[in-house]
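Technical annex B. To support the medicinal chemistry partners, we prepared a structural model of the target in complex with adenosine-5'-triphosphate, based solely on the information shown next.
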Amino acid sequence: MADDLLQIRDLRKSFGGIAVTVGVNLEVRRGETHALIGPNGAGKTTLIAQLSGDLKPDGGQILFAGRDITAMPAYRRSHLGMARSFQITSIFLELSVLDNVALAVQARAGHSFRFWAPARRDRRLVDPAMAALERVGLGGRADRPAAILSHGERRALEIAMALATEPEMLLLDEPMAGMGPEESAEMIATLQELKAQKTIFLIEHDMDAVFALADRISVLVYGKIIASGTPDEIRNDEHVRRAYLGEEAA
Ligand SMILES: Nc1ncnc2c1ncn2[C@@H]1O[C@H](COP(=O)(O)OP(=O)(O)OP(=O)(O)O)[C@@H](O)[C@H]1O
Protein backbone atom coordinates (compact mmCIF):
# COMPACT_ATOMS: atom_id res chain seq x y z
CA MET A 1 0.00 0.00 0.00
CA ALA A 2 1.09 3.56 -0.65
CA ASP A 3 1.22 4.42 3.06
CA ASP A 4 3.40 1.45 3.98
CA LEU A 5 6.79 2.67 5.16
CA LEU A 6 8.16 -0.82 5.75
CA GLN A 7 7.19 -3.92 3.80
CA ILE A 8 8.50 -7.37 4.65
CA ARG A 9 7.87 -10.01 2.02
CA ASP A 10 8.34 -13.73 2.52
CA LEU A 11 11.40 -13.18 4.73
CA ARG A 12 13.30 -16.35 5.64
CA LYS A 13 16.23 -17.12 7.93
CA SER A 14 17.56 -20.42 9.27
CA PHE A 15 20.34 -21.25 11.70
CA GLY A 16 21.97 -24.62 11.18
CA GLY A 17 18.96 -25.98 9.34
CA ILE A 18 16.48 -24.67 11.92
CA ALA A 19 14.05 -22.17 10.38
CA VAL A 20 13.71 -19.16 12.69
CA THR A 21 12.04 -16.70 10.28
CA VAL A 22 9.53 -18.66 8.23
CA GLY A 23 8.14 -16.67 5.32
CA VAL A 24 7.29 -13.52 7.27
CA ASN A 25 5.03 -10.95 5.58
CA LEU A 26 4.39 -7.73 7.43
CA GLU A 27 3.67 -4.06 6.71
CA VAL A 28 4.32 -1.10 8.97
CA ARG A 29 2.30 1.93 7.90
CA ARG A 30 3.77 5.39 7.89
CA GLY A 31 3.04 7.05 11.26
CA GLU A 32 1.86 3.98 13.13
CA THR A 33 3.27 2.28 16.19
CA HIS A 34 3.41 -1.40 15.36
CA ALA A 35 4.27 -3.92 18.06
CA LEU A 36 5.64 -7.39 17.44
CA ILE A 37 4.79 -9.83 20.21
CA GLY A 38 5.34 -13.53 20.62
CA PRO A 39 6.61 -16.13 23.07
CA ASN A 40 10.28 -16.55 23.98
CA GLY A 41 12.26 -17.93 21.09
CA ALA A 42 9.59 -17.02 18.51
CA GLY A 43 12.22 -15.20 16.45
CA LYS A 44 11.48 -11.55 17.26
CA THR A 45 15.09 -10.47 17.79
CA THR A 46 16.15 -12.38 14.69
CA LEU A 47 13.53 -10.50 12.68
CA ILE A 48 14.49 -7.04 13.96
CA ALA A 49 18.18 -7.80 13.31
CA GLN A 50 17.31 -8.50 9.67
CA LEU A 51 15.37 -5.23 9.46
CA SER A 52 18.26 -3.19 10.85
CA GLY A 53 20.81 -4.92 8.63
CA ASP A 54 22.68 -6.67 11.43
CA LEU A 55 21.70 -10.10 10.10
CA LYS A 56 21.42 -11.22 6.47
CA PRO A 57 18.18 -12.96 5.47
CA ASP A 58 18.33 -16.23 3.48
CA GLY A 59 15.45 -15.14 1.28
CA GLY A 60 12.62 -12.66 0.82
CA GLN A 61 12.60 -8.89 0.63
CA ILE A 62 12.58 -5.86 2.87
CA LEU A 63 11.37 -2.58 1.40
CA PHE A 64 11.76 0.75 3.21
CA ALA A 65 10.02 3.79 1.73
CA GLY A 66 9.61 1.77 -1.44
CA ARG A 67 13.33 0.89 -1.75
CA ASP A 68 14.67 -2.61 -1.58
CA ILE A 69 17.03 -2.57 1.42
CA THR A 70 17.36 -6.35 1.81
CA ALA A 71 21.09 -6.41 1.04
CA MET A 72 21.90 -2.93 2.35
CA PRO A 73 24.36 -2.56 5.23
CA ALA A 74 23.08 -1.14 8.54
CA TYR A 75 24.72 2.29 8.16
CA ARG A 76 22.99 2.87 4.82
CA ARG A 77 19.61 1.94 6.28
CA SER A 78 20.31 4.45 9.02
CA HIS A 79 21.00 7.11 6.36
CA LEU A 80 17.69 6.29 4.72
CA GLY A 81 15.92 6.99 8.01
CA MET A 82 15.66 3.70 9.88
CA ALA A 83 17.26 3.64 13.32
CA ARG A 84 17.56 0.72 15.70
CA SER A 85 17.86 1.84 19.29
CA PHE A 86 21.45 1.42 20.37
CA GLN A 87 22.08 -1.27 22.95
CA ILE A 88 23.21 -0.34 26.45
CA THR A 89 26.59 -1.86 25.61
CA SER A 90 27.20 0.95 23.11
CA ILE A 91 26.97 3.65 25.80
CA PHE A 92 30.31 5.15 26.85
CA LEU A 93 29.93 5.26 30.62
CA GLU A 94 32.79 7.66 31.25
CA LEU A 95 31.44 10.22 28.77
CA SER A 96 28.66 12.64 29.58
CA VAL A 97 25.10 11.81 28.62
CA LEU A 98 25.18 14.63 26.05
CA ASP A 99 28.49 13.44 24.57
CA ASN A 100 27.01 9.98 24.02
CA VAL A 101 24.18 11.42 21.95
CA ALA A 102 26.47 13.88 20.13
CA LEU A 103 28.64 10.89 19.15
CA ALA A 104 25.58 9.18 17.68
CA VAL A 105 24.84 12.30 15.63
CA GLN A 106 28.45 12.44 14.51
CA ALA A 107 28.51 8.75 13.60
CA ARG A 108 25.55 9.29 11.33
CA ALA A 109 27.10 12.38 9.81
CA GLY A 110 30.02 10.10 8.90
CA HIS A 111 32.83 12.07 10.52
CA SER A 112 35.82 10.33 11.95
CA PHE A 113 36.05 9.92 15.72
CA ARG A 114 39.53 11.47 15.49
CA PHE A 115 37.89 14.85 15.21
CA TRP A 116 35.83 14.31 18.32
CA ALA A 117 37.35 17.00 20.56
CA PRO A 118 36.61 19.99 18.32
CA ALA A 119 33.35 18.38 17.20
CA ARG A 120 32.14 18.34 20.82
CA ARG A 121 31.80 22.10 20.60
CA ASP A 122 30.09 21.97 17.23
CA ARG A 123 26.52 23.17 17.61
CA ARG A 124 25.46 21.02 14.67
CA LEU A 125 26.14 18.03 16.91
CA VAL A 126 25.27 19.43 20.31
CA ASP A 127 21.92 21.04 19.41
CA PRO A 128 20.24 17.93 17.94
CA ALA A 129 21.76 15.85 20.75
CA MET A 130 20.28 18.14 23.40
CA ALA A 131 16.91 18.16 21.64
CA ALA A 132 16.87 14.35 21.60
CA LEU A 133 17.67 14.23 25.32
CA GLU A 134 14.81 16.63 26.07
CA ARG A 135 12.44 14.39 24.14
CA VAL A 136 13.21 11.39 26.35
CA GLY A 137 13.19 13.38 29.59
CA LEU A 138 16.97 13.36 30.12
CA GLY A 139 17.61 17.06 29.47
CA GLY A 140 18.49 17.61 33.13
CA ARG A 141 21.14 14.88 33.02
CA ALA A 142 23.00 16.11 29.94
CA ASP A 143 26.26 17.01 31.67
CA ARG A 144 26.42 14.04 34.04
CA PRO A 145 28.54 10.99 33.22
CA ALA A 146 26.43 8.22 31.68
CA ALA A 147 27.70 5.91 34.45
CA ILE A 148 25.43 7.52 37.04
CA LEU A 149 22.22 6.83 35.07
CA SER A 150 19.75 4.25 36.37
CA HIS A 151 18.86 1.27 34.18
CA GLY A 152 15.68 2.99 32.96
CA GLU A 153 17.58 6.18 32.16
CA ARG A 154 20.16 4.22 30.17
CA ARG A 155 17.38 2.72 28.10
CA ALA A 156 16.02 6.22 27.52
CA LEU A 157 19.53 7.32 26.51
CA GLU A 158 19.67 4.55 23.91
CA ILE A 159 16.45 5.89 22.42
CA ALA A 160 17.81 9.44 22.44
CA MET A 161 20.89 8.17 20.55
CA ALA A 162 18.61 6.67 17.90
CA LEU A 163 16.39 9.76 17.79
CA ALA A 164 19.29 12.15 17.37
CA THR A 165 19.90 10.76 13.88
CA GLU A 166 16.40 12.07 12.93
CA PRO A 167 15.09 8.73 11.70
CA GLU A 168 11.69 8.38 10.07
CA MET A 169 11.31 4.98 11.73
CA LEU A 170 12.50 3.75 15.11
CA LEU A 171 13.14 0.04 15.70
CA LEU A 172 12.94 -0.65 19.42
CA ASP A 173 13.98 -3.99 20.86
CA GLU A 174 12.29 -4.46 24.24
CA PRO A 175 12.54 -0.88 25.52
CA MET A 176 10.97 -1.87 28.89
CA ALA A 177 13.24 -4.88 29.50
CA GLY A 178 14.53 -5.09 33.05
CA MET A 179 12.43 -2.16 34.30
CA GLY A 180 10.32 -1.91 37.40
CA PRO A 181 6.73 -0.59 37.22
CA GLU A 182 7.74 3.03 37.80
CA GLU A 183 10.44 3.06 35.13
CA SER A 184 8.12 1.26 32.71
CA ALA A 185 5.43 3.88 33.24
CA GLU A 186 7.95 6.63 32.48
CA MET A 187 9.13 4.86 29.33
CA ILE A 188 5.52 4.38 28.19
CA ALA A 189 4.91 8.12 28.68
CA THR A 190 8.07 8.94 26.67
CA LEU A 191 7.02 6.61 23.83
CA GLN A 192 3.47 8.02 23.90
CA GLU A 193 4.96 11.39 22.96
CA LEU A 194 7.36 9.98 20.36
CA LYS A 195 4.64 7.98 18.71
CA ALA A 196 2.95 11.17 17.54
CA GLN A 197 6.12 12.10 15.61
CA LYS A 198 7.67 8.84 14.40
CA THR A 199 6.81 5.52 12.87
CA ILE A 200 7.74 2.97 15.52
CA PHE A 201 8.24 -0.78 15.23
CA LEU A 202 8.78 -2.37 18.61
CA ILE A 203 9.29 -5.73 20.16
CA GLU A 204 8.01 -5.87 23.70
CA HIS A 205 7.08 -8.48 26.28
CA ASP A 206 5.27 -6.04 28.57
CA MET A 207 1.66 -6.45 27.43
CA ASP A 208 0.48 -3.36 29.33
CA ALA A 209 2.97 -1.32 27.32
CA VAL A 210 2.05 -3.02 24.04
CA PHE A 211 -1.67 -2.48 24.46
CA ALA A 212 -1.13 1.10 25.65
CA LEU A 213 1.12 2.09 22.74
CA ALA A 214 0.42 0.04 19.64
CA ASP A 215 -1.90 1.07 16.83
CA ARG A 216 -1.44 -2.40 15.39
CA ILE A 217 0.07 -5.61 16.70
CA SER A 218 1.55 -8.60 14.89
CA VAL A 219 1.96 -11.93 16.63
CA LEU A 220 4.96 -14.11 15.83
CA VAL A 221 4.89 -17.78 16.84
CA TYR A 222 7.55 -20.27 15.72
CA GLY A 223 8.88 -17.78 13.18
CA LYS A 224 5.49 -17.13 11.54
CA ILE A 225 3.09 -14.20 11.80
CA ILE A 226 -0.15 -15.79 12.99
CA ALA A 227 -2.13 -12.53 13.19
CA SER A 228 -1.88 -8.78 12.56
CA GLY A 229 -4.51 -6.31 13.69
CA THR A 230 -5.61 -3.60 16.09
CA PRO A 231 -5.15 -4.23 19.81
CA ASP A 232 -8.85 -5.14 20.07
CA GLU A 233 -8.65 -7.55 17.14
CA ILE A 234 -5.58 -9.22 18.65
CA ARG A 235 -7.06 -9.38 22.14
CA ASN A 236 -10.17 -11.10 20.78
CA ASP A 237 -8.45 -13.41 18.31
CA GLU A 238 -9.04 -16.99 19.45
CA HIS A 239 -5.97 -18.32 17.67
CA VAL A 240 -3.74 -15.71 19.33
CA ARG A 241 -5.24 -16.33 22.74
CA ARG A 242 -4.56 -20.03 22.43
CA ALA A 243 -1.09 -19.65 20.95
CA TYR A 244 0.17 -16.83 23.09
CA LEU A 245 -1.94 -14.56 25.25
CA GLY A 246 -3.76 -17.43 26.97
CA GLU A 247 -0.45 -19.10 27.56
CA GLU A 248 0.91 -15.93 29.19
CA ALA A 249 -2.15 -15.60 31.43
CA ALA A 250 -1.78 -19.22 32.50
N1 LIG B 1 22.94 -16.75 15.80
C1 LIG B 1 22.14 -17.78 16.07
N2 LIG B 1 22.55 -19.05 15.88
C2 LIG B 1 21.75 -20.10 16.15
N3 LIG B 1 20.49 -19.98 16.60
C3 LIG B 1 20.02 -18.75 16.82
C4 LIG B 1 20.81 -17.59 16.57
N4 LIG B 1 20.06 -16.49 16.89
C5 LIG B 1 18.88 -16.95 17.31
N5 LIG B 1 18.85 -18.31 17.28
C6 LIG B 1 17.71 -19.15 17.65
O1 LIG B 1 16.57 -18.65 16.99
C7 LIG B 1 15.42 -18.77 17.82
C8 LIG B 1 14.74 -17.43 17.92
O2 LIG B 1 15.54 -16.55 18.69
P1 LIG B 1 15.18 -15.01 18.90
O3 LIG B 1 16.17 -14.47 19.87
O4 LIG B 1 15.02 -14.33 17.62
O5 LIG B 1 13.75 -15.14 19.61
P2 LIG B 1 12.93 -14.05 20.40
O6 LIG B 1 11.53 -14.17 19.95
O7 LIG B 1 13.59 -12.72 20.27
O8 LIG B 1 13.07 -14.57 21.89
P3 LIG B 1 13.04 -13.74 23.27
O9 LIG B 1 11.66 -13.22 23.41
O10 LIG B 1 13.35 -14.79 24.27
O11 LIG B 1 14.08 -12.67 23.17
C9 LIG B 1 15.90 -19.33 19.16
O12 LIG B 1 15.62 -20.70 19.17
C10 LIG B 1 17.37 -19.06 19.14
O13 LIG B 1 18.06 -20.04 19.86
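Notes passed to the chemistry partners:
The radius of gyration is 18 Å.
The chain has two domains: 1-81+169-250, 85-166.
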